[in-house]
Amino acid sequence: MRVNKKLVAGAMTAGVIGLTGVAGTALAADNTNANSSPMSSLVQKIADKFNVDKAEVQKVFDEARAEHRVEHEQRFNERLDALVSQGKITAEQKTLIIEKFSTMKAEREANRDSGTRPTRAEMEAKKAELDKWAAENGIDLSVIMPARGEGGFGSRGSHGHAPM
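The structure corresponding to this sequence follows.
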């Protein structure tokens, strides 16, 4: 039976995507080119192993990432809708939260695209800024993002990222 190399590479790539959450941190630390994607060395290894075009492998990764982001945003919106229904936040607060998290997402992507990582001090300043913003808008962040281990956005399954 003849096996199409592109199909094998696609199947292998799909399996590897499940490991990217764990491997991403290690690969990012191992990546010497700050302007390249943290997954680029993994993409290159898969392309080399299965003798396929790196661009095709990258395309599979990019599609999977886009699908994951859409699913994440849907779950986030569903959670916010539930909080509005429960009376824990208002519809206006939901709108403010979505806007804030969109801004935060854009900042994270800009940092990632530039290859820079915020320092601990910068991260602490951002957290203080977020806490101040939440207090000014009457939003209890523990309702939106429960502490690690409570199944919220900071739990292990979400890789600690807000979905927006």
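The radius of gyration is 19 Å.
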